[in-house]
């Protein structure tokens, strides 16, 4: 008899607490292991992927959920349920509904980090260090689109007719 079980005269075993089976070879867990977990020793379960806790009763997302995401089981599939403004398998990617243009990066819900020379909620406004003159418009970092009859880097040269 295994695990401290007593061998009886008829050859059967009287198992010690926490074990069962013909030779006391199987550990028993009370409560039973949940979600397909396997009892390794009394009170200790080996849990399948996606579950944790002493009796495999807790849903467990690999690597955890970030940014306020919650680990849930939906139809047997364990996944992160993301808080508003976040997406990705672990809720690690921010959502910027307005988009981030000109190689800007979405760093938090609705917030873009813009590269040098660009500003605005969507990194859509160019910055010209020297302002465009005579109604010219800044269309890219330090690039003006001039109105006729003006030209030049800041639209200061008047074309002769």
From TrEMBL:
GO terms for cellular component: cell surface; extracellular region. GO terms for biological process: anterior/posterior pattern specification; blood vessel development; determination of left/right symmetry; heart development; nodal signaling pathway. Transmembrane segments: none annotated. Residues 1-25, 57-92, 124-156 form the EGF-like domain. SMART domains: EGF. The keyword Nuclease does not apply. This is VWDE protein. It comes from Hylia prasina (green hylia). Keywords: Disulfide bond, EGF-like domain, Repeat, Signal. Disulfide bonds join 15-24, 61-71, 82-91, 128-138, 146-155. PROSITE patterns: EGF_1, EGF_2, EGF_3. One of its GO terms (molecular function) is activin receptor binding. InterPro entries: Dev_Signal_Modulators, EGF, EGF-like_CS, EGF_extracell. The keyword Cell division does not apply.
């Amino acid at each position: 008899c295994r695990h401290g079980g007593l061998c009886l005269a008829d050859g059967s075993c009287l198992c010690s607490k926490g074990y069962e089976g013909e030779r006391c070879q199987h550990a028993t867990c009370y409560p039973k292991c949940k979600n397909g977990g396997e009892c390794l020793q009394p009170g200790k379960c080996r849990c399948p992927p996606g579950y944790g806790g002493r009796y495999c009763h807790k849903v467990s997302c690999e690597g955890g959920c970030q940014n306020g995401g919650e680990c849930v089981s939906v139809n047997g599939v364990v996944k992160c349920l993301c808080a508003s403004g976040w997406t990705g398998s672990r809720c690690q990617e921010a959502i910027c509904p307005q988009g981030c243009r000109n190689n800007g990066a979405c760093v938090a819900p609705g917030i873009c980090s813009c590269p040098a020379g660009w500003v605005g909620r969507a990194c859509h406004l160019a910055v010209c260090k020297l302002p465009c003159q005579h109604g010219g418009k800044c269309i890219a970092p330090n690039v003006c689109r001039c109105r006729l009859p003006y030209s030049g880097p800041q639209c200061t040269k008047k074309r002769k007719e």
